[in-house]
Design a protein that fits this description.
There is one protein chain. This protein is α/β, with parallel strands linked by helices and 273 residues long. The protein has a single domain (11-262), classed as Rossmann fold (3-Layer(aba) Sandwich). Helices cover 38% and strands 18% of the residues. It is built from nine helices and eight strands. The chain has helices at 11-19, 60-64, 90-103, 116-127, 146-161, 166-179, 181-192, 220-229, 252-262; strands at 23-27, 30-37, 42-46, 69-73, 109-114, 132-138, 207-212, 233-238. An eight-stranded mixed beta sheet has the order 1-2-4-3-5-6-7-8, sandwiched between helices. Strand 5, helix 4 (116-127) and strand 6 form a beta-alpha-beta unit. The N and C termini lie far apart (40 Å). Mean pLDDT is 89; it is low at 1-7.
Length: 273
């Protein structure tokens, strides 16, 4: 996506140059790596199972080039951030994001998650509504009971493989090997034990759910149920989108995020009902 008339000086080229640099900050006794580009209202990209901030390569610079400060941390145990061998449960991932945001002294931000991290961001929005301006939930997982969910996700993952590019498969495999397959599998199992649906009515900020029409892991029907349960939920379906909907080559995912963020009212915490 090209930068528009509100792009900062330097545009996409400068944003891409800034994004490739790894940055580090101490958080709770560990050094957390993150990527950053742009200036303006903050948008935080939180990667899904087993991968890292590198997974947002097609999103960080284009979104930053349109006038936002975009950041993406490596969750503990993934990418280049050290973490427990046993992985983190969903609530622990949410706390790690909150601790990193506090160390960064971020104002209320728009948080964008993909797949499993959407469950963590729902926990974050309910537990810490003062730090979340809005949510974007891309291909959000969490449908069904634990064991059936694992089986369904595994089958969907296998069906999804032929729909994704070889470059993406290599990127994901490299990330999984770096993290360690045991850590990835434990984190996956912990995620499957978490039910996000009861959290949805407690999310008091606008939330955009984005799903690919051809995603075999997350169906449009489930995304629709999530939107219906949210206080201020909106749905975008990407035609021909797969589970890796954030990497949609047409730029429709990035455009949906930008349009959504620009539509947001000034931040305020909605009172409980």
């Amino acid at each position: 996506m090209a930068a528009d008339e509100r792009s900062p000086a330097g545009g996409l080229g400068q944003a891409a140059a800034d994004w490739v640099s790894s940055r580090w900050i101490p958080v709770g006794g560990r050094r957390v790596r993150y990527r950053e580009a742009g200036s303006g209202d903050p948008i935080v990209l939180v990667h899904g199972l087993g991968v890292s901030a590198d997974y947002w390569m097609r999103n960080g610079p284009p979104i930053a080039a349109t006038g936002f400060r975009v950041l993406a941390p490596d969750l503990p145990g993934f990418g280049r951030t050290a973490g427990p061998e046993g992985g983190l449960a969903v609530g622990e991932q949410a706390r790690s994001v909150r601790e990193w945001a506090a160390a960064m002294e971020l104002p209320p931000a728009v948080y964008v998650g993909h797949s499993l991290s959407c469950q963590s961001l729902l926990e974050l929005a309910v537990a810490n509504p003062d730090c979340v301006r809005a949510l974007v939930l891309a291909a959000p997982t969490g449908e069904g009971q634990s064991l059936p969910r694992l089986a369904r996700q595994l089958g969907g993952f296998l069906r999804d493989l032929h729909r994704e590019s070889a470059a993406l498969a290599i990127l994901v495999l490299h990330a999984y090997l770096r993290a360690g397959l045991a850590r990835v599998l434990r984190t996956w199992r912990l995620g499957a034990a978490h039910d996000p649906m009861p959290l949805l009515p407690g999310v008091r900020v606008p939330a955009l759910v984005v799903v690919g029409k051809n995603d075999p892991l997350v169906h449009v029907e489930f995304a629709t149920r999530m939107v219906d349960a949210l206080t201020d939920g909106r749905l975008t379906v990407i035609p021909d989108g797969t589970h890796a909907v954030i990497l949609d080559p047409t730029g429709r995912f990035n455009a949906a995020v930008i349009d959504f963020v620009r539509s947001l009212p000034p931040f305020s915490i909605r009172p409980s009902t």
